[in-house]
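Task card 7
Instruction: Convert sequence to structure tokens.
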Amino acid sequence: MKRSFVSWMLVAAALVTMTPVSAFAKVRTPALFSNGMVLQRDIAAPVWGWAEPGEQVTVTFRDQSVSAKADDQGKWKVSLAPLALGEPGTLTITGENTLTFDDVLVGEVWICSGQSNMGWSVNQSDDPDLERLAANYPNIRLFSVPLTTADTPQDDVNSLWKVCSPETVGHFSGVGYFFGRQLHISTGVPIGLINSSWGGTRAEAWTSPEMMAVKPNLQPIQDSWNNIIAKPENQEATKAYEEKWNAWQAALKKARADGTDLPARPGHPGNTRWSEHHPSTLYNAMIHPLAPYAIRGAIWYQGESNAGRAYQYRELMPAAIQSWRDAWGQGDFYFYQVELANFQAVSPQPKESAWGELREAQQLTNKALPNVDSVCITDAGAAKDIHPKDKQTVGKRLARLALNDAFKISGVVRKGPTYESATFEDGKVTVKFNTYGPKLITWYGEPLQGFAVAGEDKKFVWAEAKIVSENTVELTASGIEKPVAVRYNWAENPQGNLYNETYLPAHPFRSDDWMGVTADNVRVD
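Output:
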């Protein structure tokens, strides 16, 4: 079955959640079901769509055939029993009409989401010409979700699966592709990648409205937006956009019913409830339509736009993850974050850092929920560019987590060293790390740097540091007779050079819990 497709950067389309039953004269499915799709192996794979109320719909794939009747709203859903790897197959859906999807693979499916550093394409990454040239991977499939917003949860997007090739890979997420490519070449398993990301956006926009509503500490975000929208100029913008939105919805319903090309979404919504920065608008339009398509997990590169509210992120990010898991209903799927890269001017002296606090919030999210982890890239950024081009390193480091967790491959070092404990005695600080196997080293034998210590006055100074065992660093600092706190790489652009022998960088940390610079920041207006 062929679907119409328009550039994902220019056009977006979505179904209204309560689309009238009359729109479903024939059996149809969301755009995720198309030629070349990848179905997740080893777990139940939901297949769903719309038909006439009461219509019997049968889904057939390989030796399985399962049926369901469309409910009063014309919705139906079945689940294929867990699938094993195998040759490409054909999935058919039969009701009043028959849909046939060819070249269907079974493998590993991952969502790639976040803001611009996830959206940053292969064409914008290092060596784009060489990367395109080498991108002949017919068993990697790519699905790009159009940039679109909605003020209520939607049921579909306008896209389709593409086979990874030199012609198709260039506009796809660089981090997503390099992550998926590493998984594929390391295991031989088919990989499906779903890119749903938007530059400059905030985590609250990717969080479900239900989750935002039950978190009192996140209410100031919604209160801020209520104030923004209430301004006279934004009230006028809201009224104008609402007229365009309603007209688009009507045209969308008609196109769906007629089987014609989908209309283009109205232009940018500005400071209205449809803004890409407003709570839940991206969840509604770019995440909700994907559920419950079976996946192995998600990778997430975001946080720059929330760094000014890093303490709030400690609750916001776990809430966002849980809202996705609630929507999918398949348990605690893997969720891997990219900690913020090094960026901005190098600070000559230790100081407080909003980006340090955001990285800490990401690490706390790892502890708040099961099957959540993060990778460190404080050695892969750029002082003067918030969009570093080295997306290959980022993808590989994320792949290490998946190879350990989803594929259970031994011998792959999970990540760089992480802080375990600090002891303070006789003017010295002893810091122990989890190195994930390889012993601690510095970058090509350079003198160790990046550590700062403080006394009771909370004033940090650079420390003299040395590696004293495979997992231990010892610190002293001139003028600090009784240190009580230690920090490592606590800065926007840290210059620490502690690694493990696999040359994976140590994660930033602090031993103290002193109030940070973003602790009181909870609003966006």
